[in-house]
Amino acid sequence: MESERAPHFGFAAGDVVLVTGAGSGIGRAVALRAAELGLAVAAWDRDAHAVAATAAEIASRGGTAVAVPADVSVAEQVDAGFARSRELGVVRHLVNNAGPSSAVDLDFDEAMRIAVGSMRRMVDTWLSAGAPEGASLVNIASVAGTLVGTASDWYCASKAAIAGYTRHLAAYRSDEVRSNAVAPGMTDTPRLAGFAATEVGRRVLERIPMHRMATPDDIAWTMLFLLSPLAAYVNGVVLPVDGGWTVTQ
Ligand SMILES: NC(=O)c1ccc[n+]([C@@H]2O[C@H](COP(=O)([O-])OP(=O)(O)OC[C@H]3O[C@@H](n4cnc5c(N)ncnc54)[C@H](O)[C@@H]3O)[C@@H](O)[C@H]2O)c1
């Protein structure tokens, strides 16, 4: 399924990338675009039906994917998910994308466990088997973690924590894995369906220099670049992908 226009970003064909939250939105886009680059995809999601659809779409275009129904906040499911993913081969790349919506009402401590702790569990479980050569990961933060305060206290706090955790990995575990994060702005995924048409949504769009939301692909390609050998010397950045929103604040 290698698109003629898509660059390969230096990935080795058949290398395995594990993408969490691959049943929808940004994670789904990462999974589809990664397969276009020749990667085999371990597509994780707690929504078994959605992630089966992502894997089926990849397969229908000639790519390789396995659907892994797993909730990243449940230890046993993470262990079982890694066992299933490794059937594809050595997992060399990890995209920690799954995370709860800011619209959900969560207890603060529990939210930190689910949103940040699960990313840490994914990394520790992955690397406990020994870091593969050329390992790289990308965590998903948000402009809500770098700049913008959100109505839910746990959301912006957890996204800031993900940025900090990424810096920890880059500073202290770079002999095992190269680690970066992206901080998307408003991205047009099912989670934000209809938001752009609301009063608040319109106000935000007016302040974004590019006057549009990101597409899931805008975020996916940036994540794949950071993950790829082309970004070999990029370690510990939290890269805004926000149409310039950040610089206008
Ligand atoms: N959409 C935006 O504007 C935006 C902006 C900044 C950051 N983000 C971040 O991007 C990530 C993806 O968001 P999206 O907009 O694509 O959302 P989405 O709702 O379209 O997709 C999220 C997917 O993750 C899955 N998921 C959620 N929790 C999970 C868990 N514990 N285990 C396994 N799977 C789980 C869901 O089932 C869903 O399929 C989130 O971490 C979100 O915070 C989104």
Features of this protein?
7-stranded parallel beta sheet; binds nicotinamide-adenine-dinucleotide; 41% helix; alpha/beta; globular; single chain; Rossmann fold
- The level 1 CATH classification is Alpha Beta
Spatial arrangement of strands, main beta sheet: 3-2-1-4-5-6-7
Order of helices and strands: EHEHEHEHEHHEHHE
Termini separation comes to 41 Å
Which outline best applies?
A: globular
Rg on CA atoms, Å? 17 Å
CATH architecture descriptor text: 3-Layer(aba) Sandwich
- How many separate helices? 8
Spans of at least 5 consecutive residues whose pLDDT stays below 50 are none
What is the CATH third-level topology name? Rossmann fold
Strand count, sense and barrel status of the largest sheet are: 7 strands, parallel
Please state roughly what percent of the residues sit in beta strands, choosing from under 5%, 5-15%, 15-25%, 25-35%, 35-45% or over 45%. 15-25%
SS elements, strand count: 7
Helix content, binned percent: 40-55%
Structure in words:
- It is a single chain.
- The chain has a single domain, classed as NAD(P)-binding Rossmann-like Domain (Rossmann fold), CATH 3.40.50.720.
- The longest helix has 20 residues, at 108-127.
- It is of the alpha/beta class and 249 residues long.
- It is 41% helix and 15% strand.
- The protein has helices at residues 25-36, 48-60, 75-86, 108-127, 143-146, 153-172, 199-207, 216-227, and strands at 16-20, 40-45, 65-69, 91-96, 136-140, 178-184, 238-241.
- Residues 20-21, 23-27, 45-47, 50, 71-73, 97-100, 140, 142, 184, 186-187, 189-192 line the site of nicotinamide-adenine-dinucleotide.
